[in-house]
Design brief:
By secondary structure, the protein is an alpha/beta fold. It is 42% helix and 16% strand. It binds zinc ion (ZN). Zinc ion binds next to α10.
Length: 330
């Protein structure tokens, strides 16, 4: 993406130290960040999207500091964000903290309208934000730049693939592994096989089930190269994510990686790219679908005569997060 300074407060388990070294980065407290935004001459400031309730106080402080600094200097600073969250924040606050919906929606509306530009990474995120603010477009410059990958260049993509399904994600309930196992029991597709790659809390259950079936293999946490090899050789990638507490699948890395290797996708409608998938010949399972309905979708995908190339031909030439970055910088 375009050169920038990365400012962050804490490091979580997915913080990539090596990647951070490749850009200018600073770890600052909330107060030091506010000071930096107030004093610096910033053309564009990209902040978190406002759906994370715990960052609300920070956002208020940062936006106020940036706006005040720009006002005093009589300069122009654009405040932007990249939004992919499609969960219902007000439903979550109601169930967890008993905050009435009209209050959380009011806060969300007030916050989101303080941005100059918002790039939505999925159609699902755009729809979720419309729930807080039906007139968002009147106040904020918005665009939907669907978060699609470009083709992975890890190796040759075979044109013919045996009828096979790949699950590659963590073995936990919210990633829909239980739904996939139930549907696979229901499917009975002659000659088809299922490969499960991952690790997680449901490992004992998945392992026992896989051992009981000749057409299922389980690979625990293999190296990345082996994952890419599996993506190149399987016909279908399935991710049946289920909503859990206040979590909802935003995009789903297995979906993105499957597409970039020419796989057909069978996904639940929780992913923000569900409408793109439906419109481009993939298979979307509705919320609450029975195992027979899911098995039907898997069967249709396995029956499909689409070539991997026809799938990768629908992808952009560069990752769309980069395209969104360009758009956000104006
Ligand atoms: Zn690859």
């Amino acid at each position: 993406m375009q050169p920038s300074t990365l400012v962050y407060r804490t490091e979580n388990y997915s913080f990539d130290e090596v990647l951070a070294q490749s850009v200018a980065h600073r770890r600052l407290s909330r107060l030091a960040t506010a000071r930096l935004l107030f004093r610096g001459h910033w053309d564009v400031i990209e902040l978190n999207e406002p759906t994370m309730v715990k960052v609300w106080p920070s956002l208020v402080i940062y936006i106020a500091s940036a706006r005040l600094g720009a006002f005093i200097r009589r300069s122009r600073t654009e405040i932007v964000c990249y939004a992919i969250d499609n969960a219902d924040v007000s439903a979550c606050l109601l169930s967890r903290k008993h905050v009435p919906r009209f209050i959380s929606k009011w806060v969300m509306r007030r916050l989101i309208r303080r941005y100059d530009r918002v790039a939505f990474g999925t159609q699902g995120a755009r729809q979720a934000y419309a729930e807080y603010d039906t007139h968002l477009d009147r106040h904020v410059d918005t665009a939907v730049i669907e978060q699609l990958p470009s083709v992975c260049d890890c190796g040759n993509v075979d044109d013919y693939r045996r009828p096979s399904v790949l699950f590659v994600s963590s073995l936990e309930r919210r990633k829909g592994i239980s739904e996939l196992m139930a549907a696979w029991d229901d499917l009975r597709y002659e000659g088809a096989y299922l490969t499960i790659i991952g690790k997680g809390p449901l490992e004992p259950e998945v392992s026992a089930w896989a051992a009981s079936r000749a057409d299922v293999s389980l690979v625990i946490d293999p190296p990345r190269a082996a994952v890419h090899e599996a993506l190149r050789s399987h016909k279908v990638v399935s991710l049946l994510s289920q909503p859990q507490d206040c979590w909802r699948e935003q995009v789903g890395l297995p979906i993105v990686e499957g597409l970039s290797h020419g796989c057909l996708v069978v996904a639940s409608e929780e992913t923000g790219v569900a409408s793109w998938l439906s419109e481009h010949g993939h298979f979307v399972v509705r919320r609450g679908a029975s195992k027979a309905e899911i098995a039907d979708k898997l069967r249709s995908a396995l029956d499909s005569d689409r070539s991997p190339k026809s799938i990768t031909d629908q992808l952009p030439h560069r990752h769309m997060r980069v395209a969104a970055d360009d758009w956000l910088r104006g």
